Amino acid sequence: MQFTFSPAISLLVNCKTQEEVDRLWEKLSEGGDEQAQQCGWLKDKYGVSWQIVPIALGEMMQDKDPKRSERVMEAMLKMKKIDIRILKQAYEQK
């Protein structure tokens, strides 16, 4: 019997810094598939789905100003690997 992985199950890693996001993204995507995913998702070489998410994303998405969280969501939807700097730019936009 052979078992396979699907995106129905994924492992979530909350990262404190962009450096941590970058390091994990690079290591986990080696031999895997980062191109088919978006919004911080990737598949490793074994087909396991991962979500590499900066903690700052959750903090920005919980802002009381819905316009700020909407801008952050729009910015994130355009990304594969999440970039905290771009999220902050969207968040702070007037």
Explain what this protein looks like in three dimensions.
- The protein has 94 residues and is of the alpha+beta class.
- The protein is 43% helix and 16% strand.
- It has one domain (10-92): 2,3-Dihydroxybiphenyl 1,2-Dioxygenase, domain 1 (Roll), CATH 3.10.180.
- It has helices spanning 18-29, 55-61, 66-77, 84-92; strands spanning 10-15, 41-43, 49-54.
- Strands 1-3-2 form a three-stranded mixed β-sheet.
- Helix 3 packs antiparallel against helix 4 (84-92).
Q: Which strand order does the major sheet show?
A: 1-3-2
Strand composition percent: 15-25%
- Poorly predicted runs are none
Q: Rg, please?
A: 14 Å
What is the approximate shape? Answer: elongated
CATH topology: 2,3-Dihydroxybiphenyl 1,2-Dioxygenase, domain 1
CATH class: Alpha Beta
Task: Give the class from helix and strand content and strand pairing.
Answer: alpha+beta
Q: Provide the number of structural domains.
A: 1
Number of strands: 3
Number of discrete helical segments: 4
How would you describe the oligomerization state of the chains in this entry? single chain
- CATH hierarchy: architecture: Roll
Main beta sheet, described?
Answer: 3 strands, mixed
Order of helices and strands: EHEEHHH
| Residues in helix, % | 40-55%
